[in-house]
Amino acid sequence: MPSVLVVEDDPAIRASLIEVLSEHGHAVRSVGDGFGALREITQAHVDAVVLDLGLPDLDGADALRMIRGLSRVPVIVATARDDEAEIVRLLEAGADDYLVKPLSGRQLAARLGAVLRRANGSLAPEAQGQVLHEAPMATAGALVVGGLRIDPSARTVHLDGRELQLTRREFDLLAFLAGHANQVVSKRRILAEVWRESYVDDQTIDVHLSALRRKLGEQGARPRYLWTVRGVGIKMVTPP
After folding, report:
1. Are 71 and 44 in contact (CB under 8 A)?
2. d(CA 11, CA 28)
3. d(Cα 184, Cα 4) in Å, to the nearest integer?
4. Distance (Å, whole) CA 98 – CA 85
5. CB 11: neighbour CB atoms within 10 A?
6. How far apart are CA 62 and CA 157, in angstroms?
7. How far apart are the first and last CA of the chain?
8. Which pTM was predicted?
9. Which domains, and CATH codes, for the chain?
10. Burial, 3: exposed, middle or buried (Cβ in 10 Å; 0-12, 13-18, 19+)?
11. To the nearest whole number, what is the mean pLDDT of the chain?
């Protein structure tokens, strides 16, 4: 059963979309803001996203670009603006399709089915709806920082002997920081060397760092490994 994330701040519209998509056989998750959508995409398996542009915390186009920095997941944009320049801008920013409000439930379900079929045909199964990744930052030898052991060749991470389940982008970010342990690395350098995308911004890094800290069991006030050096960057330290 495909999992669809509905990003819509209007409760009535959100409830209607959930009902329609559920009737068409989708498992539906929903959030009412852009940052909530980013958290869902990094923490849960999502096969497609229906994204409203009128969000309370982020411009929808910015949210779309940030999603594209995280995942290849198909995105259908719901917009009240139907001028050609706006639609072209959204498609160029990474939207797979669009619908103009007010939405037709049947049309949305049909468009959603189409983008899912295209995604299933063009991506390997292990890549569908998953976090984007590049080649590992290192190819030989484990990286060890305190009780953290990162094996780039096997793409595994163990913390105090316990294996951690990371997304591919989380792994790449952690491996990069471990390869520069006890150094302050700027977010600009992380974007250039880990994401390698010009349209990704600092908030995307912050979302991944938050997920990594949670999986490492970090406490915000007293982190063990990942320190934020305000105004400079991120530093992975060896715990005392």
Report:
1. no
2. 14
3. 38
4. 13
5. 10
6. 32
7. 47
8. 0.55
9. 3-127 (3.40.50.2300), 143-236 (1.10.10.10)
10. middle
11. 82
Region class of 196: left (phi > 0), else alpha (psi between -120 and 50), else beta? left
For the residues of 27-60, what is the DSSP string, one character each? EEEEESSHHHHHHHHHHS--SEEEEESB-SSSBH
User: What one-character-per-residue DSSP string does the chain give?
Assistant: --EEEEE-S-HHHHHHHHHHHHHTT-EEEEESSHHHHHHHHHHS--SEEEEESB-SSSBHHHHHHHHHHHB---EEEEES---HHHHHHHHHTT-SEEEESSPPHHHHHHHHHHHHHHHHHHS-GGGTTPBP--S-S--SS-EEETTEEEETTTTEEEETTEEE---HHHHHHHHHHHHTTTSEE-HHHHIIIII--TT--HHHHHHHHHHHHHHTT-BTTB-SSEEEETTTEEEE----
pLDDT (tens digit per residue) in 200-229: 667 778 888 888 998 999 876 778 999 988
Burial of 173 per CB tally in 10 Å (0-12, 13-18, 19+): buried
Cα gap 116→209, rounded to integer Å: 29
Task: Look up residue 218 and give its two tokens.
Answer: 């970090």
